[in-house]
Amino acid sequence: MKYSLLSTFLIIAVVAISGCSHVQENNDILFQTSTINALLNGVYDGDITFQELKQHGGFGLGTVDALDGELIGLDGKFYQVKADGIAYLVNDSMETPFAAVTFFEPDKSALLDEPINNHEQLNGYLDNLLPTKNIFYAIKIEGDFEYVKTRRVPKQNKPYPPLVEVVKNQSTFEFHDVEGTMVGFRCPDYVEGVNVPGYHLHFITKDKKAGGHLLECRMQNVTIEIDYTSDFYMVLPQSDEFYKVDLTEGKEKELVKVER
Ligand code: ZN
Q1: What's the whole-model pTM score?
Q2: Can you tell me the distance from the alpha carbon of 90 to that of 124, in angstroms, rounded to the nearest whole number?
Q3: How far is CA 254 from the centre of its chain?
Q4: Exposed (0-12), middle (13-18) or buried (19+): which is 218, by Cβ within 10 Å?
Q5: Which helix (H) or strand (E) holds 24?
Q6: How confident is the prediction along the chain (260 residues), in pLDDT tens digits per residue?
C-alpha cells in the first residue's frame, strides 16, 4: 500500500516536471516589445531594459532608447550601431522602445550556391527555402560579403519627430568585401502595423565594430540559417506616450520609405 502510494506520487511528480520543462524548452518564440507603427509615430522612449529583453533571447534587432542607433543581438550580446557607424556594446541597464528577439536554434541551413546581386534577389532566394509564408522566421546569414550597404538612425530629442522624418537625415555606409553576420526576421504579411512584413535584417561586421540596418547587398558562398518560429509574444509599453499615440492609421507607405 505504502509502496504503491509512493510510486503514484513519483509518477505525478515526473509528469509534472516533464510537462513544465516542455514549456521551458520551447525557444521558438518571437518576443517583441511595442509595435512598428508606434515607432513610426515617434514612440522612442525605452520601455524595457536589456536585462529583461535578454530573458527572451539573445538574437534579434530593434533600436535603443531615443532611437539611438540600430540594434543587433547576436550570440547573447547586444550591439548598438550609432549614427557614427560604430558598434557599441549595450549594457543591461539600457532600455529599448522596440525590439524583436528569439533564442536562435536553426531548423534549416543552406550554403548559398549562386551569386546574389541585391536585397530583392536575396529575399526571393530565402523565400524558396521556406515551407510556408504564414509563420515567423529568424534569419542568420554569415560569411564574406562582397557588398553591404547599411544605414543608422541618429539619436532623437523631444519632441520626437516621426520616423519617416528621421530617416531623411540617416547616414548610410557601404562595406566592400566584409566579413560579418546578417541578423533578422521574416514576418508574415498579416503583421502589418505590428512588425515589418517580409524581411528585416541588420548587419554587424565580424569584428563587431560596425554595421547597421541592411539596405542593399551582394554575396556568394555565405551560410544561411533559418529558425522556424511559430510562437509570437508581444509586450506593449505602459507609458503615457504609447497610451496616447494614434495607432488607427495604416502606415504601409511610410514603412517602405523607412525600411529601404
Ligand atoms: Zn532595421
Answers
A1: 0.90
A2: 33
A3: 19
A4: middle
A5: helix 2-24
A6: 445 554 544 444 444 444 444 445 688 999 999 999 999 999 999 999 999 999 999 999 999 999 999 999 999 999 999 999 999 999 999 999 999 999 999 999 999 989 999 999 999 999 999 999 999 999 999 999 999 999 999 999 999 999 999 999 888 999 999 999 999 999 999 999 999 999 999 999 999 999 999 999 999 999 999 999 999 999 999 999 999 999 999 999 999 999 88
| Rounded-to-integer distance, Cα 228 and Cα 242, Å | 30
Shortest CA distance to 201 belongs to which of 213, 209, 218? 213
Class at the top of the CATH hierarchy for domain 2-259: alpha beta
Phi, psi of 142 (to 5 degrees): -130, 140
- Ligand 1 center to residue 231 CA distance, Å? 21
State the distance from the centre of ligand 1 to the C-alpha of 8, rounded, in angstroms.
53
HSE of 163 in the Cβ direction (CA atoms, 13 Å)? 28
- Cα–ligand 1 centroid distance for 140 (angstroms): 14
Q: How far is residue 196's CA from residue 225's CA, in Å, rounded to a whole number?
A: 20
CB atoms within 10 A of CB 149: 18
141 is written with which cell numbers?
Answer: 546569414
Q: What is the spatial distance between Cα 180 and Cα 202, in angstroms, rounded to a whole number?
A: 11
Domain ranges of the chain: 2-259
Say which DSSP state 40 is in: H
CA of 167 to the centre of ligand 1 (A): 11
- How far is Cα 256 from Cα 163, in angstroms, rounded to an integer? 11
